[in-house]
Structures are given as structure tokens and as C-alpha cells.
Amino acid sequence: MTDYEIPANLMGVQRPRIECCPQYATTLGDAAIELARLAGLELDPWQQWLLRNALGQTDETYWNPVLGAWMPKSSAYEIGIVLARQNGKGAFLEALELAWLFLAGIKTIVHSAHEFATSREHFQRIEGLITNTPELKGELARGGIKWSHGDESITLATGQRLLFKTRTKGAIRGFSPDKIVMDEAMILKQEAVKAMMYAMSARPDAQIVYTGSAGDEESEHFGRVRERGIKKSDPRLFFAEWSADVCDILCRPDCTDHDDPADPYTWAKANPALGYRIQPQNIESERQADPEGFLVERLSVGNWPKTGEAWAVIPEAAWKARIDELSSIHTTPVFSIDTSPDQKWSCIAAVGGNGEGGVHGEITGREMGDGSVRMDYRPGTRWVIARAKEIHEKNKRATWVIDKGTQAGTYIPALEKAGLKIVSPTTREVAQACGDFYAAVVPRGEGQKPDFWHIDQPELSTAVANAGKRELADLWAWDKRNSASDISPLVAVTNALWGYRQTVNKPKPKPMAAWGR
Fold it and tell me: What pLDDT does residue 373 have?
């Protein structure tokens, strides 16, 4: 059982952990909530909040031929919702589609899913809501419910249609929908997005909705929607994610900055329907039975694809301005080792004074017999200890910086046994090192001129170009997990620079007389 006591009357958190909400002037949300209630659909507070934002409207209008009136345009062009299973996402979509049909006068709506069974089930639910509500059933066209396999639809007397499709390249050829719902968006293929999105380019009030659970490395399109939602970079995107912020492999064992999967309050953060239709005892059983799957399926912790923008942190112009092909280390170097979280790549780097008042950093390497250099940025981890010992034999006085809270920390016992002097920064010092590296490369104004130089090694430049950052309270650090590619060369150089600064700025011993001797 969990080490925590499950609180009585524990309820899910009704607002998402991550949200990006466009401004709206008015909303059809409240009317949609009443319409859903009329159809026998009582919505939770979080579902009502979603509706108000999804049905938000601007001051700009367009002519709606179904209603014969000028109507406000929607504030959100795209809507993305990440939510664990069994919370009630389908009920929100049912209420949204009812509102589009019976309140907003939308001409053509397409509801799509990856699997036919999922699309069919949603059709059956919304068909039941309409046909069991006399006020709505009376709006149907004669023969307005079509049950054909793979071609289900609901048509009103006004000619409005709600179509149900599975996702294929030709699923909506010949249609020009006003609204599209893409359920199961975590397995959404780019071809399907293209086929559907560009079919609505000419519609005056187009909207596209993505809903699904946590994504994986294949969830490229949904992942890009989520990334924009996190950045709040798109004024026409409404994004909401109920999820837990749990530790990853970059966290130290004593980390207290993230959510504990065993804590019932973590469950509540990721499951707004907890206490409404999901029982905490069942969640605890899920956690015990499948700890790894629990993170994805119940806490919405996804392994999202890395889609970072190039040069997002260090500007390309600033990095290229620090190139000096003749630069080299003229002092005792400080070395650093870093290994990627998945242990696929490792890197050894060195930083030292360049003899001209500046600092030089590079990936180390070994000169081969044919005149080439074998870089110390290679796949795997097995080569690291032997190569570090080899470097140490030629640099006995050098300091080595290894962050013991990362995968590279596993090298420390063997290297210390071999006589290497290891220094390990704290979490705060790691973040300070990142800020110092940035200041050493990017001009910051009068009195803060960059002093870092490099020889434009492709491996290091690529890491700098693809690096992202993660916030740490009032500081930040390199984001190994979500950067667009492996950034271990950048991390190694950053840590080596920190070690070099520590060495240079270390107070010198006081003369004997100063100690009163």
C-alpha cells in the first residue's frame, strides 16, 4: 500500500497544471453547459471550464448562413487537451459538438479517431443524447441518423452535419469542414493532419481540436501543439494538460521539487475526475500493479518527442562570434565528463586559460597515427573510464568536474581510485554554471564582455544549437531531456568552465605572518 494516507473526500484538481488560454470577449460556454444538462449530461467544473474557453468568441464577426446572422468568430483556432483515461474527455467533446450543432449553427463537423471502434462509440453516445432529448430530436432531418459502417453521421433539418470518420489520407476528400475533432491525438500521423487541416483553410470560423492521453516519441504533431502550449507562443491556441510533474533521471535521489507518484495529491493533480467518477483506491491498485504504465496512463507523464528550435538559448551569431581557430589552452586544464540520460553518448571536455586573458573550451581528443583526431565524444559509456585515466596520466594536476547526480556520477568511484581529483557541483552550482556559460558567450552590455573562445568543433556547435533549458526556481539549467539532440558536449564544457572559474578564483593561502606565526 502507499506510504501516504488517502484523504477522505479527495477530489481532483479542476484546473490543469499546464494551460494556455486565448483571451475572449464572450463565450457560448454557459449556454453549452445548459444544453448539455438538457440532454442529461451533467458536467464537472473542469469540463465546464474547458467549454467556456473552447467556445470563447472574439469581437470579430462572420456571416453564418445557417443562422442567417453575423456571428462572433472563435478565439481559438486550435484546441489541445492532454488528459488521462476515464476522466470524462468524451463528455466534454459531446457537449462541445452539441453546442456547435444546436447553438453555433456550424455547417459541417468531422469527428475523427484512430480506431473505428473509438469513433463508433462516440457516435453512439452523442446519438443517444440527441434522440433521447425531444427538443434536440425534433431538429433532426428525416433519416438524419446514418449508421453505415465507417460512414456514420448525424444530419439536422438545416443541413448541418456531424460526420464520424477514422483517420486515413482520403477520409474527408470532398468535404470542407468548419470544425474538426481529432481524438486519440497521441497516435496522430502527420499525413492525417495534412489531409484534414487543409480541407478547412477557406472556412471563416475554422477550429481543430486535439484530445488524447500522454504522448510518446512518435507523437510528433501533438507534441508540437503541446510545446506551443507550454511556451504560450500562439495567441490562437487553447491548450490544457492535467498531469503530474514527477522526477526524471536527471533528479538527485533526495529531490523534493517534483511530485511523488505515490502521493494521492499527485493523483488529484493529474485526474480532475478523481472523486467524481474515479476512485482513489482503484488508482492505488493501478500503481501497485503497473508502476511504469501508471506514470503514463494515470499521471499523464509522456515521453514526448524532442522538437526544440535551433539556437533557442545561445544565439547563433553570438556563438559564431566566439570562434578562434587558433585558440587553445595555455594553463592547467579543468576536465569534465558528461553522459546522456539514456547512456547512448558520452563526452569529455576541457577548459582553460587561452593565454590572452580569455577562456578556451573544447571536446578533448586523441591524435591518431594517420594525423586524424579521435574525438572524446562517442557512443556509449564503456570507453570513458579508460580514456579519462589516459588523459590523467598526462595531466596529473588537473581537476575533473563530474555532476554526481547524473549518469556520469557512476564513474566517480573508479576515477577517484585511479587518483583523479573529482569535484562535483551542487544543483544550484550546476544552474549557476549554465548562467556563467551564457554570460561568457553572449554579450550582456557594458562591463560584461564575453571571454569564452572555441574552435567551432561540429559536435559542440551542434549541441549548443539544439540545447533547450529548464527552469529551476530563480535559475535555469540545460534541459537534457527535451533538447532537440544530445547535448552532453555542451554540458561537459559548461561544467568544465565552472570548475576552471573555481580554480582561478580560489583564494590563495595567506602568508605565514598573516596567521600570527
Answer: 86
